């Protein structure tokens, strides 16, 4: 039974939850805990690393994309129990400025190519899912999936790359600011074994084991669990919610308690 969903996004990045709707949905789903892990941003309405909202534990987290050394692959790190660290906030501010500029360029390219007005303004937290939704809702003959495959996905004509934190810098920032640092969804990457190796190479605390969209062929949970046993890693998990559903995947009570022990006390 899922009692903790430790991977969810809000309107602060590319999700559709507000903080209030995230909390109410978590309660409806019967969760004990939920983590807010917006992309490259710390949710401004959470006042402490862990807060208690009428019996629901809300963990202030972050999902930070980093670029690995050598091969330049981009992977995502999850930080839980984020403290108010000025260096991490400064890096998030830099990344959000880049997101705004990147968003502006993508919007301009899409509007010019399709001859439509998407009605979007560049802003902090803007991501490609926002642009894909706007394309889907526009007069263009293109749905959400087609927007990614034909327009704004990697190597598509309207794609614009964005600035990404180097892995060494990202790990250092998260380690200084967070109680727990882990690797997100290891089997989403081109080279899962290389991604998993980062857990050892950079002495991370955790690895995400439970997420609902894992490829049934490529995903190898036994490899993740063996790595966790050998290197004393916590197992984390969650829905990776960008819509308005929680508890699709996550942690049972035993695994959540193991993570909870590493987090600061909740503030009311």
Structural description of this entry:
Strands 1, 2, 3, 4, 5, 6, 7, 8 and 9 form a nine-stranded mixed β-sheet that branches. By secondary structure, this protein is α/β, with parallel strands linked by helices. The chain has helices at residues 19-28, 86-114, 128-137, 144-152, 167-177, 192-201, 221-231, 253-260, and strands spanning 4-8, 33-36, 50-53, 56-67, 74-80, 165-166, 180-183, 206-210, 234-237. The two termini are 26 Å apart. The protein folds into two domains: 4-83 and 178-260, TIM Barrel (Alpha-Beta Barrel), CATH 3.20.20; 97-152, no CATH class. 37% of the residues lie in helices and 18% in strands. It has eight helices and nine strands. α3 (128-137) packs across α4 (144-152).
CATH class of the largest domain reads: Alpha Beta
Weakly predicted, low-confidence segments: none
What CATH architecture of the largest domain would you give?
Alpha-Beta Barrel
CATH homologous superfamily label of the largest domain: Metal-dependent hydrolases
Rg is 18 Å
Number of strands: 9
Q: How far apart, in Å, are the first and last alpha carbons? A: 26 Å
Strand content: 15-25%
Q: What best-fitting shape do the alpha-carbon axes yield? A: globular
Q: How many domains in all?
A: 2
- Structural class designation: alpha/beta
Give the helix proportion (percent range). 25-40%
SS summary, helix count = 8
